[in-house]
Amino acid sequence: MFIQGDVLAFLALLIGSCISAWSLTLAYGLLFPEKCQVAKTVVTEKPWRCLGTGALLTLTIGLIGLGLIGQAPNPVLKLIGWVLVLGLFGVSSLGLAGISLNAADRLKVMSPDMTPYAAFTRGAGFLIMGCIFPIVGWLAVAPLLWLTAMGAGVKALRTRTESRVVIQQTETA
Question: Which of 80, 119, 134, 169 could bond 104 through an S-S bridge, CB–CB 3.0 to 4.6 Å?
Fold first, then answer.
């Protein structure tokens, strides 16, 4: 039997996790635009390869990290496990920013008057909100999106990009 406080705590955890994931996706998209463009291109051109790469990394590095967290008696090994698992989440956040840019492009086709930032924020929000949809979102959308984002993030990190600094001059009246 659930107590009302348990239900409220679960809802707060769910809402907080969604807001955190959304803001982290936006932060990655704004801080690393070149890498996110690479992730967007990779997801658009080779989505199944991204899914396979993400699944392979999760099954290897993820299981090793979880094993170290759960079974290692040495605190240093537990720390290494946490670094591995949280590193996977960081890489997948970069890939999710690329997928959000892809969703932003599709939103801009539907509504051409939308600014790029508004399209990006809405695309990220739609992806994250789709993951919390009961049953289908939890068991199908979220794992597939996470694995695909993992593969896209790895490819984006492995691809060398040129960083270009563009300074815009504004005219004052």
Answer: 119
